[in-house]
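Hey,

Quick one before I head out. I ran the complex with heme C overnight. Inputs first:
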Amino acid sequence: MLQNGRGTDSFPRRNLLFSLLGAAALVPLIAAASPSPPSGDDQKVAVSSQTSAQAAAPAAEPTKRPRTAEQIVGGKCLQCHRKVVEEFVNEAHGNAAHSGTGGYDMSTCESCHGPGDKHNDSTLKTDILNPPSMAPAAVNKMCLTCHSKEHSRLSFAASEHDRKGMSCISCHSTHHAQSPVKELQKTTEGELCTSCHIDIRKAYYQRSTHLFRTDQKNEKMSCSSCHNPHGSERERLLVGVSSNSECYSCHAERRAPMLWEHPPVRENCLNCHVAHGSNNLSLMKARASQLCQTCHMHMLWRHQTAGGFDVVSYNRGCMNCHQQIHGSNHPSGKTFLH
Ligand code: HEC
Ligand code: HEC
Ligand code: HEC
Ligand code: HEC
Ligand code: HEC
Ligand code: HEC
Ligand code: HEC
Ligand code: HEC
Ligand code: HEC
Ligand code: HEC
């Protein structure tokens, strides 16, 4: 679907852009020739082209940025790589170059492929840089000449992924991206990450999971909700600053101090929970009774008077009575019954 999706997706966008550029050029003509306002769809085009005409107006003054579409999207390469050049405008780099947004150096073909003049004459592939045949470190260096300004990528060097010889294009693709945004190698982020981290994939199908999806398989939460694939100051590429801060960022109600604290909760949520998916309720590491008894040994015998032998197995097990397991604010909540 997405291979097609990209194709079908690209045409309206390109057409729109071209028609805007075209319309922008026509605006003075339209304005001069037709005093009556255009109606319907025409009006929309006219309105948006008016703005782009206004935005383009200062460009009449001398500017060091090349303005013709051909120069920006690689007129040098057009002759032999027409398809790549034409599709470039639908791609983030080409789009930013066209529209003049992006905030920093506009990327042309040669930003990533190096000087092209020699190759233009020889057409030899040895005369042009092609990222997949470059050393990973060289690719990273090249991409980071522009992208190191973004905070989230500051820690890429020496991150888990960098150490394993991966590069930006292990996950991203400039001309053949499969995802609608972020230029990923796979259709979704989850697909991308679990193509290597296969063991995480089962979490999508477990009884309790953070990786829940809609019926259309849209991910509601993705790996990057908790991990920074570009590197982090912490182990496991986690985004939070401490083990629990990760969890508090969404489960804020667990952050508040309690009158009666249950020490393992403050210490680390992962004392009892797993991060991705579990076959137990509530992302628990183990069935409740076993979970509690890893720390509270021999509870069964001491509880017979209170609950008989069913304390372990009936319904929610220990939580039938110890309901406030994350801590209690009740004056007599010392044992988390209230
Ligand atoms: C006169 C024709 C011509 C022009 C102009 C041209 N190329 Fe090429 N390019 C080729 C041919 C032919 C190949 C295939 C070479 C091969 O497979 O040996 C190629 C291959 C490539 C490759 C793949 C190299 C590889 O390792 O497989 C890249 C990247 C590339 N060109 C980029 C560019 C860029 C960027 C420009 C503009 C600056 C450009 N080309 C201009 C003819 C051209
Ligand atoms: C942001 C960096 C970047 C820019 C800008 C860029 N390319 Fe590429 N190019 C790549 C990467 C990465 C690949 C490897 C294939 C992929 O991941 O899409 C590639 C591959 C290619 C290839 C090999 C054939 C293919 O489709 O894989 C050609 C030809 C090419 N680029 C031409 C161009 C031309 C022409 C332009 C300008 C219109 C351009 N590139 C702009 C990064 C870039
Ligand atoms: C392990 C896979 C992986 C690697 C390696 C990787 N990225 Fe990403 N990148 C992603 C994912 C997933 C996203 C989208 C999620 C997000 O925004 O964090 C993304 C988003 C981005 C974005 C979009 C802006 C943003 O922050 O949302 C840029 C730019 C980017 N990456 C550049 C790079 C560069 C440059 C490198 C190499 C130094 C690189 N990436 C290496 C997976 C990766
Ligand atoms: C010459 C500067 C430059 C270079 C080199 C460069 N980029 Fe970019 N990149 C940009 C600009 C500009 C944007 C558009 C930013 C925007 O729209 O805010 C961008 C956007 C992106 C995005 C975001 C796409 C999206 O949908 O949000 C990704 C991912 C990305 N670049 C990856 C790479 C990778 C991988 C490389 C190396 C192969 C690379 N870039 C090389 C300038 C560059
Ligand atoms: C091309 C394969 C590949 C892709 C794609 C990939 N990874 Fe990795 N990842 C690795 C390798 C190799 C390591 C090094 C540790 C290892 O051997 O498991 C690693 C390490 C990690 C670690 C640290 C594991 C630890 O034990 O400390 C996390 C977390 C991680 N990746 C998350 C992600 C996320 C999130 C994505 C998607 C955005 C992703 N990875 C995409 C290959 C990949
Ligand atoms: C709710 C937050 C969250 C989400 C979403 C999440 N992770 Fe994790 N992940 C964690 C935490 C926390 C750890 C550390 C677990 C530990 O230390 O036992 C972790 C550990 C890992 C590890 C290290 C090995 C392991 O199994 O413990 C990998 C690899 C990993 N995650 C990949 C992924 C991938 C791939 C995705 C998306 C499919 C993903 N994570 C989504 C929080 C998350
Ligand atoms: C990016 C936001 C986010 C982060 C970070 C996050 N969670 Fe969640 N968590 C959710 C959402 C959303 C749900 C589903 C809530 C619902 O179904 O009402 C959930 C559900 C849960 C559940 C109940 C699962 C069930 O089956 O009922 C537990 C337990 C949980 N999270 C623990 C954690 C722990 C522990 C961490 C830290 C490792 C964490 N969460 C980090 C968003 C997050
Ligand atoms: C001592 C073990 C333990 C620790 C540590 C723990 N939990 Fe729980 N958590 C549980 C149990 C047991 C349940 C199921 C409660 C039930 O069935 O009534 C649960 C349920 C949940 C739920 C889903 C139901 C609800 O109450 O909203 C969330 C969310 C949750 N925990 C988040 C966290 C977070 C965040 C942390 C870390 C601050 C944490 N837990 C630490 C044992 C623990
Ligand atoms: C990682 C170890 C650990 C796990 C797992 C754990 N606890 Fe605790 N629990 C403790 C510690 C440590 C204390 C504090 C003991 C103290 O103050 O003497 C405590 C205290 C308690 C108390 C209060 C005892 C008192 O005398 O004040 C109750 C009740 C309790 N836990 C029930 C549970 C239940 C029910 C579970 C399962 C959901 C559970 N615990 C899981 C470590 C754990
Ligand atoms: C039928 C209700 C009930 C069930 C089920 C139950 N408890 Fe209790 N628990 C109690 C009562 C009542 C007390 C005594 C409270 C008091 O004295 O304030 C208690 C006290 C405790 C204490 C603190 C006193 C001590 O003896 O150290 C711990 C720890 C504890 N329970 C753990 C557990 C664990 C673990 C489970 C599951 C295996 C469990 N409880 C199941 C009712 C229950």
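The longest strand covers residues 208-209.

Talk tomorrow,
K.
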